[in-house]
Amino acid sequence: MSRPDNTRARIAGAVALLALGALGAAAGWWWGAHHAAESQATSGHEHPGAAAPEREVLYWYDPMMPEQHFDKPGKSPFMDMELVPKYAEESGAGSGVRVDAALQQNLGMRLATVARGPLSGSIDATGVVAFNERALSVLQARAAGFVERAWPLAAGDIVRAGEPLTVLRIPEWTAAQRELLALSRRPDARLKQALRERLLALGMPAALVRAVETDGKARPTWTLSAPRSGVLLEFTVREGMTVAPGQTLARINGLDTAWIEVAVPEASGATVATGNIAQVRLTGAPQAALEGRVESILPALDAASRSLRLRIELPNPEGRLRAGMSASVNIASGPRGEALTVPTEAVIRTGKRSLVMRADGSGRFSPVAVELGPEIGDRTVITAGLAEGEQVVASGQFLIDSEARLTGMEPAAPEVAQ
Length: 418
What we know:
Blueprint: H1 3-46, E1 57-62, E2 65-70, E3 84-87, E4 97-98, H2 101-107, E5 110-113, E6 115-118, E7 121-131, E8 136-140, E9 145-150, E10 158-159, E11 164-169, H3 171-183, H4 189-201, H5 206-215, E12 221-225, E13 230-235, E14 242-243, E15 248-253, E16 257-265, E17 277-282, E18 285-302, E19 307-315, E20 326-333, E21 338-343, E22 348-349, E23 354-359, E24 364-376, E25 379-384, E26 391-395, H6 397-406
Helix pairs in contact: 3-4
């Protein structure tokens, strides 16, 4: 074939391809237009003269700050983005966050039932053994004098009631005793009474005054003895030293009872009362349980740990309790009666309010504001916001809460628990 024939053949093929493409484009345009017209006709037949319904907008919000609402659209003052409308139908029933069942399983989401249970329970805590400071005796010098003798004692020693500690010589007492004895032969009763009162005013014990009157002998020295059995917390007396009025010579703490000082969370404070029974197990002897009672609840709250301090009093007849020992404590707590409770882990505390994620049974979850009562064990009392038998999310609720905040969903207001 000659070259002119080949050229004519190529041109003819190109023209044919262009014609086919134009024909296909025309056919596609015709089909699309015909289909759109048919759809519009059908739609007009089903809803003659009907316009698309206008959705009611409740407010506009920034998805990054969903708690802030605006009454008109526009730019967000927080982010470089347009405000998003919140429609009325989105806040109605069944408008909670929907979570697919497979996703719930992957997230390890657990549900718990709002149940009615007893208010009484127990609190587990740790404590430290301390001296019972109500069994503390402080011995002071009642007048100026000298230490003639001091028994070889030191802080930490155990003493018995009546055991001598030191012998003091108080010159002022000696002179007053001799004056009393010199006037004791006179029949003037008022004068004798005045002298007795003078000796007592000088700080002389009443027993010593009676002894001087009984045997008619002055006592230049005075033996200071332990008023109770216990441990010497302080003993500052040494032979030959002088003492001043009001100077502390010894401090003795009784050991018949001891305190266990315990810190309990602030939220559990309302369930504890004085007189509640406590089971105490010493770390050094965990097999033996000791029983005591809550003796007092201190009025000051520890600001650092947000905890209340309790004192549990225990009998200590054998002296086994020593200050500084650690112990585990189980305190019976809570008033009588019943209340609605949920697992404590289901509660989201924002600082301003408390929320739970309520499940409606169809895979949807919505935030509900609740009012809390005391914590009892691992559950928290709900006084408003939920009803018995409802289900809440006990694990994974923070993810749902984040999604609810992004969509601008407002928590339901709390209602009194039934």
